[in-house]
Amino acid sequence: MTIRIAVIGAGLMGADHARIVAEDLPGAALQVVCDMDAERARKVADETGAKDVADDPAMVISRVDVDAVIVASPDFTHAPLSLACIRAGKRVLCEKPLSQSPAECISVMQAEQAAGAPYVQLGFMRRYDEAYRQMKAALERGTIGRALMMHNFHRNVATPAADFTGAMAITNSAPHEFDVVRHVLGCEYRAISAFQPKRSDAVVAPVMMVLETDDDQLVNIEINNNAAYGYDTRAELVGEAGSIATNHVAYTRTDRALSTAAAYETDWRGRYAEAYRRQNRAFLQFVRTGNYPVLAASAWDGYATAVVAEAGVRALQTGQRQPVIMVAKPELYA
Ligand SMILES: NC(=O)c1ccc[n+]([C@@H]2O[C@H](COP(=O)([O-])OP(=O)(O)OC[C@H]3O[C@@H](n4cnc5c(N)ncnc54)[C@H](O)[C@@H]3O)[C@@H](O)[C@H]2O)c1
After folding, report:
1. Ligand 1 midpoint to CA 77 (Å)
2. β-strand 28-34 against 322-323: which pairing, if any?
3. In terms of residue numbers, what domain contains 164?
4. Mind giving me the DSSP string for 188-207?
5. 237 three-class SS
C-alpha cells in the first residue's frame, strides 16, 4: 500500500524532504506540499510532482488522503503540529527541535502516553549518519574501552540572520550535538557550562560548551556559526584504549603545487544527504508497521535536548555551570 505523505513547510528543509519522498522513498507518494506562503508550496510541488498544494497545516493533517506528515516549518510550529498529528492518529516526522520549551515537549509526551503509543519521530538525522553509526558500534564492541570524552565541532559558513545570538546557537544548532552525543554514549547530562571568546567585529562569536554526563564523562561542543571556510562538523570519541574520529567527507581531493585540497559543503544538506534518506526510510517503515524505529529520536529525546539547551542558555547568560534537571523517563520511552 502506498503511504501518502504531506510535507508542511516548503523552505530549505521542506523542499529537501519533499524531494526525498518524491524521488527516493519507494512505497511513498508526495500527496501535499503545504506552506503558509502559497507560492513556495507551488514551486516545491512543481519541482517534485506533488499531487496537491495547501496553505493550512491543520486542514492538511486532518485530510483523509494523508496517511503521514513531515513537519519542516519553523521551530515554534513543531510541538503544536505534532500534537495535531497525534490527535489525528497520524505518524509525524518532525524536524528538530521538538520545542525549545521543555514544558511543551512534556505536553507532546503526555499526548503520546494518552494515545498509548509514540507517534513522533524527531529529525535528529545524525543518528543515521554512517560515521556516528560506526562510532557507536565500535564503542559498544569495546574497541576503545570505556568512553572518557567526546569532542564536537559544528561550524557553519555564516549565520542565517544578522541578529543571530549565542543563545540561538545553543537552542537551534547545538541540539544536533546534544542528541547525537547522548545517543552515542547512551547517557544523559548532569551539568553544562558555556563560554564565548571575543571576536574583533560585531558578528556573533562561537559558543564553547562543556557538559558532564551522568556517567562522569566530559563532552565539549563548539558551535561556530560564522566559521567562514565551509560547513564542517566533526566528532572524536576518546576512550581508555583508543579514540574514534569522524572523517571529513569529500568525494575528491585535488593535489597540485605541493599541496592537497578537499572541498567543503556550503551547508548540511550534502554532508548528511544519506542520513536524511535513511531517516526518512525508517519513518516510512514506522508508518507502515507502527514499530518505533530503533535508531530514531523520540519525543523524550526532544525533551532531553530542550532541557540541556535551556540550561546551556542559562550557563551562557550567567557565566555559571548549570545543573541539567529532567523529569523521570516515562515508561513509553524505555
Ligand atoms: N535536521 C536538520 O539538519 C535541519 C537543518 C536545518 C533546519 N532544520 C529545522 O527545519 C525547520 C525548517 O528550517 P528551514 O531552514 O527549512 O526554514 P525555512 O525558513 O527555509 O523554511 C520554513 C518554511 O516554513 C513556512 N512556514 C512558516 N510557518 C508556517 C506554518 N505555520 N505552516 C506552514 N508553513 C509555515 C515558511 O513560509 C517557510 O517556507 C526548522 O525548525 C529548523 O530548525 C533542521
Report:
1. 9
2. unpaired
3. 128-267+307-323
4. -EEEEEEE-PPPSSSSPPPE
5. strand
Q: 254 and 158: one domain?
A: yes
Of 19, 35, 69, the residue with max ligand 1 atoms within 8 A of its CB, to mutate for a pocket test, comes to: 35
Q: Is 329 within a domain?
A: no
Verify that 278 and 186 share a domain, yes or no.
Answer: no
Q: Is residue 219 part of a domain?
A: yes
Question: What is the whole-number distance in angstroms between the Cα of residue 107 and the centre of ligand 1?
Answer: 22
136-161 confidence digits (pLDDT tens): 999 999 999 999 999 999 999 999 78
Closest approach atom of ligand 1 to CA 268: 3
Residue 144: which of 267, 239, 249, 237 has the closest Cα?
A: 239
Cβ < 6 A, ligand 1 pocket: 8-14, 34-37, 40, 57, 72-75, 77, 95-96, 123, 125, 172, 268
Q: What is the pLDDT of residues 72-84, one digit of tens each?
A: 999 999 999 999 9
DSSP string, 55-121: S-HHHHHH-TT--EEEE-S-HHHHHHHHHHHHHHT-EEEEPSPS-S-HHHHHHHHHHHHHHTS--EE
In the chain, the number of structural domains is 2
Closest CA to 312 of 193, 165, 140: 193
